[in-house]
Amino acid sequence: MKSNPAIQAAIDLTAGAAGGTACVLTGQPFDTMKVKMQTFPDLYRGLTDCCLKTYSQVGFRGFYKGTSPALIANIAENSVLFMCYGFCQQVVRKVAGLDKQAKLSDLQNAAAGSFASAFAALVLCPTELVKCRLQTMYEMETSGKIAKSQKTVWSVIKSILRKDGPLGFYHGLSSTLLREVPGYFFFFGGYELSRSFFASGRSKDELGPVPLMLSGGVGGICLWLAVYPVDCIKSRIQVLSMSGKQAGFIRTFINVVKNEGITALYSGLKPTMIRAFPANGALFLAYEYSRKLMMNQWEAY
Asked: Matching Gene3D superfamilies, A to Z (predicted)?
């Protein structure tokens, strides 16, 4: 097998971009419902109510608000995530005293994914901030928290730059890191354990599309069950900072629990769980197959 770290990194980055694109295209409507229900739980009685109200207020396009930044966010995040995942796997091998080509255990892969997510969070936070604000613009305007304005990606970017400067894009970075680092331990751990289960003695690289998608879905479920309340607080911080409120993670967490109860931290969990299987299944299917295709091309070359 040819060994070239630069080529390997480029392949992982490109395959991660393919996975991120597939994830957004399959899961964006559910993500929109999740963010709306997290940020304004009092406005919606449940997923069906949120869907019906969104459609009556904004039309079908309301389900795809924030798709452009979501695509940018997921392509950027997953490109960096999977590129750094390869590097972090090498770091884990070195720490564990393993050979460079040695297979890692499921636990070791989970640790590598957790390390890699810290780097991905740095590119994810700014784009996810814009996405969340676009998704909840209607609710922010109708509740009087902000004045009516243009609902475009560029208008949101200009507003952030005007009010807070470049650092304004990193509102919610600490909560993004609090979500990503432990979350991706469970994400990659759940994915690798599921692949091991389906492989049952065979090589995990030989798995077909259905076991891969199911494993990706299990990984997504594990991630969200582990860190959903943190994601809820992150969405609140990123959206409500649009109206000038600058609350940190601890203060926002205390305010939500004190004023709305602990269940408010799980608002929007249902669309997130529904989205987890198709979106993360598509992510890993696109990642694994595009990576395998590019690796075969590189080997043949």
From this structure: Mitochondrial carrier domain
Residues present in the chain in total: 301
**Cβ neighbourhood burial of 149 (10 Å; 0-12, 13-18, 19+):** middle
Cα separations in angstroms, 6 against 3, 17, 291: 9, 17, 14
Residue 269 tokens, joined = 């969990």
Q: Nearest CA to 217 among 271, 273, 272, 277? A: 277
- And the tokens for 132? 């969340």
pLDDT tens column, 59-96: 887 788 778 878 888 888 889 998 899 889 999 999 98
Q: In this structure, what token pair is assigned to residue 192?
A: 């690798």
pLDDT tens-digit readout, 217-270: 999 999 999 999 999 998 888 887 776 666 788 888 999 999 999 999 998 898
- Phi then psi dihedrals of residue 44, to 5 deg: -130, 135
Residue at 168: amino acid letter: G
Please report how many Cα atoms fall inside a 13 Å half-sphere around the Cα of residue 15, on the Cβ side.
23
Q: Tokens 């997130």 identify what position?
A: 272
Q: Is 131 exposed, middle or buried (0-12, 13-18, 19+ CB in 10 A)?
A: buried
